[in-house]
Amino acid sequence: MINTDLIKSVIYLQRRIIKKQKIIPRDYFFEPNDNYVLVGMRRAGKTTIMHKLARDLVEKGADWNQIIYVNFEDERLNEMKLSDLDTIVAAASEMTDKQPYFFFDEIQNIDGWERFARRLADQGERVYITGSNSKMMSSEIISRLGGRYMMKYVTPYNFTEYLTAKNIQHDEEAMLTTQMRAKIVQGCQSYLENGGLPDSLNQIVPRNYLTNIYQNIFLGDIVTRNSVRNVESLRLLISKIAETVMHEVSYSRLATSVKQTQNPISTQIAIKYINYAKEAYLLFDIKNYASKFAERESTPKFYFLDNGILNLFLFQKDPVLLENMVAITLYNKYKEDMYYLHSAKNKIDLDFYLPSVKTAVQVAWELDDFSKEREIAALTTLAQKDKKIDHFEIITWNQEETIEANEIQIQVKPLYKFLLAAEKHNY
Questions:
Q1: Is the separation of the CB atoms in 139 and 279 below 8 Å?
Q2: Fold for the domain defined by 4-154
Q3: Residue 122: how many CB atoms within 10 A of its CB?
Q4: Is residue 304 helix, strand or coil?
């Protein structure tokens, strides 16, 4: 039976969990008078951020009885229904005569939960919500909650957070000290290969953990949620996309490559499956800035939202991981204002084009004589054709220099310096 004593017991248990948890500070800002729904890839850290929000409220003067944190995955709430949700409000009124702060973790387990959440918002309550991607995608949340909540997109750790979690110093002193800098570079290698899902840092063999997370995303957030029937074609499609990272590819070409394995799939079905993967925060794409609209939409470049998951599909392909990591970092900052630029007419082949910050970025694992000439030529040609761009970079694994060419200055940066700088400020 769902009564206030049971709800309070769930809240008290969660309070103990929140108090003792080690929390890595993350760079997220929440308006104090807004309600939020946290969305993002599975295991990206949404629940931990809610725990941090609760602790921050207490540090600012709230008492713990105002923190009404309900984890709906507690098995004691398995029989809870929409009609029982008001019991949470009743329990809050018994626990405090001050304003409560409601935290609902995995609330999608309750059918019709959105009506309850809307009502709380309409009553002026402060509410924070997370939900499993398999039932609660960002595209649905807006309509379900009627615009009463802000969405906060939660990513896996950025590099700064990753180093903090691994207790690797990364301030100015560390950057200028040989031994400390070596630890940062070592951390960057691990980050490049294993990605930034927080719990992966606690694994002896991160690959096993990442395989499990990918299967949960694949089977739960994509296959089950969307009732996908042709599971093998979907599996092959995602594998083929992993092979195309760094390259533009058409939907029709992807469909053809899957059909060549004797697994039937049409171009339209391939587009639908890819959209499912994007909704599950597995993939994202960027468009060609130089293309007309129809071609821009049909021939994107695909990337994975976590390097560790992409690496499950690769074998000794560090250049692919490098470009994917740069893509993730730029995408998390610029979202839709991020492109690649391929123009046969102007002889430009540019990895990343960021018009809002007047920046062009090339990625190369190593600049040898041949690749150096190619990467510089792409940037100098762009500078001649597009006078709006005034910042030029080449991201490598470990090289650093400043190149003067055709009246422009090109900054060659090692990945670790690019990641730390990009996360602190815009270009």
A1: yes
A2: Rossmann fold (3.40.50)
A3: 10
A4: strand
Rounded Cα gap, residues 212 and 94, in angstroms: 41
Question: Interhelix angle for 251-259 vs 267-279, to 10°?
Answer: 110
pLDDT digits (tens), the chain, 427 positions: 899 999 999 999 999 999 999 999 898 999 999 999 999 999 999 999 999 999 999 999 999 999 999 999 999 999 999 999 999 999 999 999 999 999 999 898 898 999 999 999 999 999 999 977 666 666 667 677 888 999 999 999 999 999 999 999 999 999 999 999 999 999 999 999 999 999 999 999 999 999 999 999 999 999 998 999 999 999 999 999 999 999 999 999 999 999 999 998 999 999 999 999 999 999 999 999 988 766 778 899 999 999 999 999 998 899 999 999 999 999 999 998 999 999 988 889 999 999 999 999 999 999 998 899 999 999 999 999 999 999 999 999 999 999 999 999 999 999 999 999 987 766 5
pTM of the model: 0.94
Every domain of the chain and the residues it spans:
4-154, 203-315, 339-424
- The architecture that CATH gives domain 203-315 is Orthogonal Bundle (1.10)
**How is residue 265 written in tokens?**
């799939």
Q: What is the per-residue DSSP string for 175-190?
A: HTSHHHHHHHHHHHHH
Residue found by looking up tokens 């008001």 in the block: 86
**Under DSSP, is residue 253 helix (H, G, I), strand (E, B) or coil?**
helix
Domains 4-154 and 203-315 agree in fold? no
User: Using CA atoms, how far apart are residues 345 and 413, in angstroms rounded to an integer?
Assistant: 29
CA distance 11 to 69: 6
For residue 109, what is the DSSP state?
Answer: G
- Where are any strands of DSSP class E within 298-373? 301-304, 339-343, 348-354, 359-363
